[in-house]
Structure formats: C-alpha cells, structure tokens
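quick one: alpha-D-ribofuranose bound model?
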Amino acid sequence: MGTKIVLDTDPGHDDAIALLLALASPEVEVLGVTSVSGNQTLEKTTTNALKILEFVDRTDIPVHVGCDRPLVREQWAAAYVHGESGLDGPDLPDPTTKPAEGHAVDFIAQAVSEHEGVVLVPVGPLTNIGLLLARYPGIEERIARVVIMGGAIAEGNVTPAAEFNIWADPEAAHRVFTSGIDVTMVGLDVTHKALLFPQKVDELREAGRVGGLVAALYDFYHGHHQRMYGWEGSPVHDALAVAHVVSDRFLQTEHRYVEVDIGPEPGRGRTYVDLWQRSGKEPNCHVGVGVDGPGFIDVLVDRLKSLK
Ligand code: RIB
Ligand code: CA
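yep, here:
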C-alpha cells in the first residue's frame, strides 16, 4: 500500500479534482477526508466531499466534519470562485451518505496515532490542523509530513499580499508553520505555473463519466480565471499538493524560513518566505519554487481518465 494520507479540504473545484487524483493514485492511500469551511460554508464543503466520494463509489472513505469557522477571523466564502454551492457547474445529486461520527480533529489524531508515516494534506484553510495541535499536545511527533496547498512567495490571490487558504485563517497557519513538523508549502508561485488548458480538458470530456464530471467542474471554474487573470488555462492548486505526495518529481522545493503575517490588512495572511536566507532564522518549510507543469498535468489527466 502507498503513503497513508488524510485530505483536509474545502471542496471547491480544485479540491474535488485533488481528491479524485488521490483516489486514482496507487502511491497514496486515503485514510479519510476531513472537511473545513473555506471556499464555502462547512455544510456545503462537507456535502461536496460526500458528493464526490459517492460519484466514484468510494463511500468506504469516511468524511469527518471539521471546523465551521477560522480560529479568530470571520468565515468568508470564496463564492466568486466556486459558486454558491462550492461546486457550481455539474448537477451532482444530493449525497445519500452521511458524515462519519467524530470531529475531524479527533479523527486525524486517531489516524496518526494508529498508523505510521501518515501525511496530512490540507488544501483549505488550516483551521482543523491548527486546532489539532492545540487539542493534542505532542501529536506533531506522530505526523510524518504536512503538505499544504497555500501561501506564496511573491503574490496573492485574495488580497495583493496573501493566498486564500492562509489569509482565511492566518492564526491556524501560524501554528502549523511554527509546529516543528516537516511542512511543505505548495503555493501560488508553482500552482500558477501548472495550468490545465481546455485542450487537455477535452480529452477528459471524452473519457467517460468521471472525465465528464471534471470537465463540467472545469468549465465553471475556468470562467473565473479567464475573467480574473485573462488566462487560457486554470490552476488546479490542490491537485498539485496531492501530486507532490504521489511523486516528488513535479516540484522543486527549497528549505527556507517562512513566517505568517497574523496582523491586520494589508499584510494579513502573507507568507513571508526568506528565499535568500536574510533572517538568520532556521528553515521551517520546504517551499515550492519550481514545477514541471506539463508533466504534472499529463499525469493528472491520465489518472483522472482511469477513474470510471
Ligand atoms: O488559493 C487557492 C486555494 O484556495 C485552493 O485551495 C482553493 O481550493 C481555495 O481553497
Ligand atoms: Ca481548497
């Protein structure tokens, strides 16, 4: 069996694609999915996680409900990107399955206690992970790695300074970056260089029901990136974080000191990456600095095609 992971997520179009990639990749074993508020409210992100797992007949994978708001800041849904449902575009039936008993934080604590080498893959705000570290002192010793989608060296998408996942709950992110855990940051600097283009999506559209679902997700999600950035392709942020657990061949990372701005705007949620090691502070994060975008996209599309 592959690397055991817990996907902590706020589906979200790219979250959904990230989950499908994990399910299509024998290199990883999904122990469970934990939902968090972010792209949409907790109720909607939880429902969306259940919908995706049902669509691919993987209701054997539990969904545990997490936090419905950030540790300190107000909950703020990115409906301008993902729509009112959080998964606008495809007409997915309401789920017939329910979330599993037990809070997400308790599920993660149990999973990392029962299994060796578990990698946490948070691809939404880090609220659940921040709370885990507070609720279970010492749990960080049981966590092999945390590979996050979040942050940026040099740009922002929700504000000029910050990437959404970190901006949404900067205090939680601060806890993760100062935890001493082996943290990898898959940020906008690399996700924005690994775009999925319509020509590749057309391959998926022809590939069957799962490919058709991904194409329908993309059609809605791509509209935002065309309007906002004028790009011909769209970043599949969260799937790149999962891909980095599948194989380290897609990303180039550098071990650097990273600090989260937990102050007010305009710096709120900025990840200050000490790229040129000017701070004298010990590196605490493997930062994505380069990516084989086409290589990642080819593997992503091939894996998604394999799902029926
Ligand atoms: O900034 C991109 C991140 O914010 C992705 O995880 C996307 O799903 C949203 O949560
Ligand atoms: Ca997300």
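The radius of gyration is 18 Å.
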